[in-house]
Amino acid sequence: MYECKTCKPEIKVKVDGQMQPVTGERYFDMLMVKVVDDKAVEWAPTKGGKDSGKSKMTVPSVGKTMTTDIDDKLRETKATYSATTQ
Q1: CA dist., res. 49 & res. 81, Å (int)
Q2: Beta carbons of 42 and 36 less than 8 angstroms apart
Q3: Local structure of residue 27 (DSSP, 8 states)
């Protein structure tokens, strides 16, 4: 189960590679979450049946940094974020 407790409203969907309905989100009404491998998770939203983009979160085999690559089709932007633990 994928949960985003900091999202408003909270998101909770199965991690099975299938589109799941999401309510209350402005930019998407369906969300697909899947495990790519033991180091990566991918999610892809849609709105009204239209592809909204995708994100892939990856952690390294060694190290403490998670990288998130985002391809936002609604805003026509791409971004990469990193988060490091102490």
Answers
A1: 27
A2: yes
A3: S
- Give the torsion through C-alpha atoms of 68, 38, 4, 15, to 10 deg: 120
**Residue 63 in tokens:** 């190290």
**Every domain of the chain and the residues it spans:** 2-84
To which residue do tokens 């799941």 refer? 20
The pTM score is 0.85
Contact 65, 57 (CB under 8 A): no
Q: Which two tokens stand for residue 64?
A: 């403490």
39-66, pLDDT tens digit by residue? 999 999 999 999 999 999 999 988 899 9
